[in-house]
């Protein structure tokens, strides 16, 4: 199939723009492959320290008979998606031995849960936890005792952080190993209804808690299509998982066999064999474009307009929002998964899941098939679904037709002809908006502004009835340099209630709205942010704001002379407590959202 013209043009644009940085990166990993510290070159005392913690594998390590796999794990049992990793390392050691390799836990990385911190002070650490994870991954792999690595992580900042750190060791082969989504609980539509009822005072706290526990009820990833599950989609279209691994439930034989196969495969793609597949070559410009296409085709999380540029930068590649915008115009929306539909990811998987999506996008010339994947020569292997054969062994078979056309459709008959992401620009700045779940008649909102700098104040104004009108809620000083760019998902229920009451409602913010961005139009990631002079700081209560996702504009309808003469609002004092003061260095170094809002990449000059 001929590559789609828009995909080809965007890819060429990225390759040309990235040429100096990408070459510098490839030179780095070539130098590391040739000269970096390796086990055979380590001193005896160094090796003794590395081997002291193991008994069964010590002789094999000493003899240097096979690959030593470093396991970088984000396990904790407070985060449901990562609780499944509890026994993975001990099992992976057994599976490594089956193919003459060894494995050690190289290190752990933090893994916070945005669902727990949402709306509270801890959320201000969330985005920078990604940079912390990147640093922790680098520390874990810095010992020079591993010939490859297995990256155990799933959720919002964890996968991007793991990749950002791991790509600086891109001369090593690596595979990402997911754990799968929890079984389906309370339907997402029912959960949203209880949340909105509680926001209106029509449901008790006990009723709300019971509904939330019925929705988030067991080990595994949350089942809505937010950032965590979008991560897993991206790893599939980039060829960094075993094929079809993304959405197989935890605790199943198939899940176990996929993990076992990942360990076996990792042992076979090291530098000693003829099938060397280093991470830095797998993650190239084409793989990054595949991730962007997958994001648009499935209606994935807006957070990846931050994360994908950051991942790309770690590999010497530059992708910007204009690339997303151009791709969105040509990539059809072929999946409807909550919050962009009624089904959860288990329904998506049952309908055909990622093998169906990849087959359709490859067939329509919308994905680069000729990328280096961890599993095979190209991406075509990922159009097959994993199964257990008659002997209970892992096998792959071609995916069939969609099992439910309300969830998955062909590229020839999509839900929408475009991917539902838009770039907005105007006198307030440059922002992005996800419209795949927003009704078309709400793509344009023109209403008076009500300005806030704290989520709690928005909720208080809502409860006091002060927002009972057409309104554009402006949330400023929520950018990476101001307070770490927390998600503002707690605003979803009250804004949804106002919209349900018939008002024209929108959100404009230099913060994030999360992978759960839904039916209310939200202009997010506004740049430049308020702290440092962004024009969002000029908005005053009562200004008429026009958000137009059709024309791609975002403006304060204020006389230009008056607008330019207005002083900027004063920033709130820097917050302290909950460890936020420790991240002052990160806030000071962070660059703009379009570059990925990263402190460590900016600090490294990448």
Describe it:
Residues 407-597 form the Dihydroxy-acid/6-phosphogluconate dehydratase C-terminal domain. [4Fe-4S] cluster binds at residues 155, 222. Keywords: 4Fe-4S, Carbohydrate metabolism, Gluconate utilization, Iron, Iron-sulfur, Lyase, Metal-binding. The protein is globular and about 75 Å long. Helix 8 (158-166) links the parallel strand 3 (148-152) and strand 4. The protein is 38% helix and 13% strand. With 606 residues, the chain is an alpha/beta fold. It contains 24 helices and 14 strands. The strands form three sheets. It has an eight-stranded mixed sheet. The model has no long low-confidence stretch (mean pLDDT 94). It has two domains: 5-183 and 218-398, no CATH class; 421-572, IlvD/EDD C-terminal domain-like (Glucose Oxidase, domain 1).
Topology of this protein?
Elements: H1 5-35, H2 44-51, H3 58-63, E1 68-73, H4 80-83, H5 88-98, E2 102-108, H6 114-117, H7 126-141, E3 148-152, H8 158-166, E4 174-177, H9 188-199, H10 205-215, H11 227-237, H12 253-268, H13 279-282, H14 285-298, H15 304-314, H16 321-328, H17 345-351, H18 353-363, E5 384-388, E6 394-398, E7 421-426, E8 429-434, E9 444-452, H19 455-463, E10 471-475, H20 480-483, H21 492-500, E11 505-509, E12 522-527, E13 544-548, E14 553-556, H22 560-565, H23 584-589, H24 599-603
Parallel strand pairs: 1-2, 1-3, 3-4, 9-10, 10-11, 11-12
Antiparallel strand pairs: 5-6, 7-8, 8-12, 9-13, 13-14
InterPro entries: 6-phosphgluc_deHydtase, Dihydro-acid_dehy_C, DiOHA_6PGluconate_deHydtase_CS, ILV_EDD_C, ILV_EDD_N, IlvD/EDD_N
Pfam families: ILV_EDD_C, ILVD_EDD_N
Organism: Sphingomonas carotinifaciens
